Amino acid sequence: MPPSLSIITFLSLLLLPSAVTATTIGVTYIPSPTLPPPEQVLANLLSKKITAVRLPVPDPNIIRAFSYTNISLFLAIPNSLIPSIAANRSAASLWLYDHVIPFYPRAHITAISVGTHVLAQGDVTSADLLVPAIRNVYRSLTDIGIRQITVSTTFSFVNIMTTPFPPSSAEFQQPANNFVIKPLLDLLSETDSSFFVSLYPYSVYKLRPEIPIGFALFQQHAYNFREDTVTGVRYRNLFDLMVDAVIAAMAVAGHENIPVVVAETGWPSYDSNGEVEAQDVYSEMYLQGLVNHVRSGKGTPLRKEGAAEIYIYEMFDTNDTATKGLNSDGAWQNWGFCYPNMSMKFEIDFSNGGSPLMELEDERVTTCLLVLVYFILVLKIRDDLILFFILQ
Ligand SMILES: *[C@@H]1O[C@H](CO)[C@@H](O)[C@H](O)[C@H]1NC(C)=O
Ligand SMILES: *[C@@H]1O[C@H](CO)[C@@H](O)[C@H](O)[C@H]1NC(C)=O
Ligand SMILES: *[C@@H]1O[C@H](CO)[C@@H](O)[C@H](O)[C@H]1NC(C)=O
Ligand SMILES: *[C@@H]1O[C@H](CO)[C@@H](O)[C@H](O)[C@H]1NC(C)=O
C-alpha cells in the first residue's frame, strides 16, 4: 500500500458521485503586431467552434474585442505584479479596473490566474506571496460583487509533481507543497475555485524513454496502456495519467474535490534542435487525439468529469519554452496549430462529436470492482474498509 494515498481515499475517488459536465476545450492566444487583428482572430475562433480562450497577456483592447461573444476568457496577471498585489489590495483593484470591470459581464471572463509558472523561475520566496496575492484579487472582486470568476495561479506539472508513476502515489514536491500548494488548496476550496496546471505529456515522454510514443499521442492499441502498479487501474494515455497524478496529490493534501483546469497542453510541431517527435504529424495526432478523448466524455479513471477545462497551447507560434520541463539549451519550439495567416497547419475538428456517457458508467463500475477484488484478494481487509463499504 502506498504511504501517500490510502485505499479508502483511492476508492472513494473512484466512487465519488459527481455531476458530469462536459469539459470545455479552449486555446491559448497571444496577440502580436505580426498577427491579424483580434476581430479577425475572433471570427476564426468562432468558425472553429472554439468556446474558450486563454489570454496570458491580457491587453484590454483584446478583452474588449471578446465582448458580446459567448467565448469565455481565462486571463493572467503577470508575475511581476505579484509582490505589489500581495502587499496592497488596491494594486489588485487597479488591475481589475483596467482588465475586468469595464468589460464584465459582456466579456465572459471566467478565470484569473494570478501569475503563471512562478515556481519555474526557481525563486521560491516569490511563491510565498502567491496566496496573499490571490486572496487580494479574490477579495477585490467580491467587494465589487463579482463572485463567478475563479481566481487561482497556474503551476507547471514538472515544477510541482514528484513523479506521475504510479499516479495513485503521486505527491506534490516539497518544499513547495507545504509553503504554497497546501495553503492555496485551502483557499481554493474556501472560494470555490479551481486548480490550474500546465501539463505536457511531451515533456514526460522526453524524460522517460521507456514510454511508447503512442501512449503519449492517444493512439488506441490493445496493448497500449500502463497499469497503476499499486491500484491496478489501467491508463490508456499519458494525459489522463498526469491529470490523475494531480488529483491523487490533491487528495493526499486533503482536497479531492477541487476542479482541475489544464491551463496549457500541446505538442510541438517544430524544434530548432531537430527533435524527431516535434513534427506537424505528431502535433496533429496529439491535438486531435486530445479533442476526441475529451469529447468522448470518458473523463479520467479517478474523475468521471475529467479536467473541467483544457486550453490547447497554442493558436499561433510564440517562443516560450522555459516552463515545459524541456532541456532548452537555447532551443525553441513551435507549438501553434495556425500559421500567422490563420490557415491551419493541419486540420483539427474541435467539434468532434462525443459518445453517450452510459458505457462509461459501466466501465467505471467494472474498474471499481476490479480494484476491490484486487484489494480483497491481496490485502487483509481492514475494519475501516469494511465500514466504508457498509456506509456506501
Ligand atoms: C450566446 O449563447 C446564448 C445561449 O446559448 C444564445 O442565445 C446567444 O445567441 C449567443 N450569443 C452569441 C453572440 O453567440
Ligand atoms: C497601494 O497601491 C496603490 C495603487 O497602486 C498606491 O496608490 C498606494 O500608494 C499603495 N499603498 C501602499 C501602502 O503601498
Ligand atoms: C523564435 O526564435 C527564433 C530564434 O530567435 C526565430 O528564428 C523564430 O523566428 C522565432 N519564432 C517566432 C514564432 O517568433
Ligand atoms: C498561409 O501560410 C502558410 C505558411 O506560410 C502557407 O503555406 C499557406 O499557403 C498560406 N495560406 C493562405 C491561404 O495564404
Question: Which short descriptors sum up this protein?
Answer:
Glyco_hydro_17; signal; binds 2-acetamido-2-deoxy-beta-D-glucopyranose; single chain; 8-stranded parallel beta barrel; TIM Barrel; 39% helix; 392 residues; disordered C terminus; Glyco_hydro_17_plant
Structural account:
Helix 1 (7-15) runs antiparallel to helix 14 (358-378). The longest helix is centred in the C-terminal third of the chain and has 21 residues, at 358-378. It is built from 15 helices and 12 strands. It has a single domain (16-357), classed as Alpha-Beta Barrel (TIM Barrel), CATH 3.20.20.80. By secondary structure, it is of the alpha/beta class. The chain has helices at residues 7-15, 38-47, 60-65, 82-87, 89-99, 124-127, 130-143, 157-160, 176-191, 201-207, 213-216, 238-252, 280-295, 358-378, 383-391; strands spanning 24-28, 52-55, 72-77, 108-116, 150-156, 195-198, 226-227, 234-235, 260-265, 270-271, 309-312, 333-334. The structure holds 2-acetamido-2-deoxy-beta-D-glucopyranose (NAG) (4 copies). One 2-acetamido-2-deoxy-beta-D-glucopyranose binds at residues 88, 90-91, 94.
